[in-house]
Design brief:
5 helices
Length: 218
């Protein structure tokens, strides 16, 4: 009886592995619906304010994430798709996260501590803010991220033409901090639950136990 209960526990763990490792692309949605997005960040330093931007072609939505602490953080947000997107919106093709207020201890970070997600950071590593984002006032942008001023909307719209800042859902991407582009950690967002790093290891171990259980029962 005990071995049967143990076998069921093993099989449950095996199912958990399959669920935790699943990843689905953006699904077509009806404007006005709310799309759930699962986010995991791992920044070296805390942010006082951050914004999530989900985009499709030239339309976008933005969600205020508030403060994000240093270290691995998990968050689930609901993205309303009904405001200002028109009738042809079919889900989000890419996303990015921008933030401000990185701690002064972050290497290479000037006052304000602007952060942005990058799918390709090769052209921004070690570069000053004004080189990576020409024509943008860094101090004013940092303020706009906190207050949500019209300047922020203009900056987000400019990201439509920047593939380097357009992150694929379900893929871990890098984040850079400025004034000089310095590695600031990682970002991952998806439409399926994002497994915790430790849980994947535990589940894989459970999967191995499950396979062992099956061998012993044969």
């Amino acid at each position: 009886m005990k071995s049967e209960a143990f076998y069921k526990a093993c099989m449950s763990a095996t199912v958990a592995v399959a669920w935790a490792g699943s990843s689905s692309p953006a699904m077509a949605v009806t404007p006005g619906d709310t799309q759930t997005v699962y986010i995991r960040t791992n920044f070296w330093h805390s942010l006082t304010a951050a914004r999530f931007v989900g985009a499709n072609s030239l339309t976008w939505v933005m969600v205020d994430l508030g403060a994000i602490e240093a270290g691995t953080q998990y968050r689930t947000i609901g993205v309303s798709l009904g405001t200002g997107l028109g009738s042809g919106y079919n889900g989000m093709d890419w996303y990015t996260i921008i933030g401000t207020g990185l701690g002064s201890g972050a290497p290479g970070v000037g006052s304000g501590g602007f952060l942005a997600g990058f799918s390709d950071n090769s052209g921004a590593l070690g570069q000053p803010f004004e080189t990576v984002f020409p024509g943008v006032d860094e101090a004013l942008l940092n303020e706009a991220i906190t207050t949500g001023s019209p300047l922020l909307e203009g900056f987000v719209s400019s990201l439509m033409s920047r593939p380097a800042n357009q992150l694929s859902f379900g893929t871990t991407s890098s984040a850079l901090s400025f004034s000089n582009g310095t590695d600031a950690g990682t970002i991952l967002a998806d439409f399926s639950p994002v497994p915790e790093p430790g849980s994947a290891i535990v589940c894989l171990g459970a999967l191995g136990i499950g396979m062992l259980c099956r061998r012993r029962s044969v």
